Amino acid sequence: MKKNVLVMISGIAILGGIGWLGARHAEHLMLDKSIERFRQTLGPDASFTYKKATPGVLGRSVKFTSLVFRQGPETITADEAEVSKPVTKGSESPLIEHLSFRNFQMADTAGSLHLVKLAMEGVTLPVKEDVHTPAHTLSIQHAEATKLHGFIDSLQSDIAADTVTVDDFGESMASHLEATKLQFSADVPPARHVSADHVGIDGLDLAGLYNSLTTGAAYTGRNGTRDIQIDHLAIDGDSPLLRAVKILSHSSKSETAEQEVSSVQDAELWPSLPNLGWLPTLGYDRLRASLVLNDTHDLKTDKLHIEELSVDAAQMGRLHLDGDFAQAGSHAVVAANADMQVLHMHMNYMDHGLVPKILDQAAKARNMNLPDMLSGWQEQIKQGNNPILAQALTYALHPEKGPLDIYIQPQRPLPLMTVLASLGAVGVAPQIAQQVGLSLHTP
């Protein structure tokens, strides 16, 4: 009886050993076939090497150590990598359902990228079949990365983030991006350092933007909606330049027009920014304000209709602007583009303390006390025919009574900077008011 039991146990052990050896042998055969199949999907200009390869669960993936992948000028390395079997259907580019890396590094002529961890789902490889056919573009359904650090050669800039999540990355695709603790540094003069606690972008063609940044090609935004949210933005040069608690932007673009609504909450802007050097002369160390912009850009005529541009600055005032402009997109408003042409414009200003500071500074610039300067202006008004100056002075003496409305309706389009400069010259050249179509309405 004991002899039969021992024979049975021995037989089971031998069969189990044979089965285990057979299973391992089958796994390695499947592994070799998987690797060879993966090599074939890469095309003739790509290669990869590794220190060790082992099969994943049920042979559905391959795990590599010390992986090195090269395709043209691009090199990718990883301490560890797991690649699922590529799926191909007919002549379509191979789809890899899952890719994961530890200590991932990529370098090419455009720059470099390092990630502590990277996991991607639904990856379509940029395969180039031969020298006569163009490469398929890379697309990724979903990607998650931690501890990102990269360098963009064309901008001579570093970029870093604690975490990054991307969905739907590919040619002309509406992508989604989330990043935390984002930092961007450019050393090319003037040096800039940008940081944000959180950045969320929906609907932007990230692949097209990446191609533009790395190759210098023009970027054309896709049609559809786009949303951006940035929390706790900071921009610094040699000194602080800008802070904003939250930036929100929504746009809708078609072949003919783009509509945009954006806001900047609790912003701080320092005098070292362009066009803000006047702040210290009026006693301000920085501009504290919130901003709202609502506009429509006609892409066929290159005309811009501003429904609302509102700047609300505590300790200064609130400015509301609306109007129509030519040769300008929405970005030109904030940047005060020199090519921007005024068709007609309306401004409404409610003072919160700025006007008295301007009057005091004007008197100091003339080495006069304020009452004497105002008396001189009033005498000029009596002797001359300058109703615009009279209205402006009436408002300046009592800005607390209510808002000032400024209308500009030039007979022909005029550059925005010319119009703004004209406003300051009306006092000495009354005819300028007629040239720019200026009129004032006071309470």
Quote the beta fraction: over 45%
The major β-sheet equals: 21 strands, antiparallel
Overall radius of gyration: 33 Å
Low-pLDDT stretches are 1-30, 130-135
SSE order: HEEEEEEEEEEEHEEEEEEHEHHHEEHHE
Distance between the termini: 116 Å
The overall average pLDDT, rounded, is 83
Q: Roughly what percent helix?
A: 10-25%
Structural class: alpha+beta
- State the total count of DSSP E strands: 21
Q: How many alpha or pi helices?
A: 8
The outline comes out as elongated
Describe the structure.
The chain has a 21-stranded antiparallel sheet that branches. By secondary structure, the protein is of the alpha+beta class. The protein has helices at 2-42, 206-215, 330-335, 354-365, 370-383, 387-397, 416-423, 431-436; strands spanning 46-49, 52-55, 61-71, 74-84, 86-87, 95-108, 111-124, 139-152, 157-169, 175-186, 192-204, 224-236, 240-253, 257-269, 287-298, 303-313, 317-326, 341-351, 404-408, 414-415, 438-441. The termini are far apart. The protein contains eight helices and 21 strands. Helices cover 24% and strands 47% of the residues. Helix 5 (370-383) runs antiparallel to helix 6 (387-397).
In summary, what is this structure?
The chain is an alpha+beta fold. It has helices spanning 2-42, 206-215, 330-335, 354-365, 370-383, 387-397, 416-423, 431-436; strands at 46-49, 52-55, 61-71, 74-84, 86-87, 95-108, 111-124, 139-152, 157-169, 175-186, 192-204, 224-236, 240-253, 257-269, 287-298, 303-313, 317-326, 341-351, 404-408, 414-415, 438-441.
Itemize the secondary structure elements and their pairings.
Elements: H1 2-42, E1 46-49, E2 52-55, E3 61-71, E4 74-84, E5 86-87, E6 95-108, E7 111-124, E8 139-152, E9 157-169, E10 175-186, E11 192-204, H2 206-215, E12 224-236, E13 240-253, E14 257-269, E15 287-298, E16 303-313, E17 317-326, H3 330-335, E18 341-351, H4 354-365, H5 370-383, H6 387-397, E19 404-408, E20 414-415, H7 416-423, H8 431-436, E21 438-441
Antiparallel strand pairs: 1-3, 2-3, 3-4, 4-6, 5-6, 6-7, 7-8, 8-9, 9-10, 10-11, 11-12, 12-13, 13-14, 14-15, 15-16, 16-17, 17-18, 18-19, 18-20, 19-21
Helix pairs in contact: 5-6
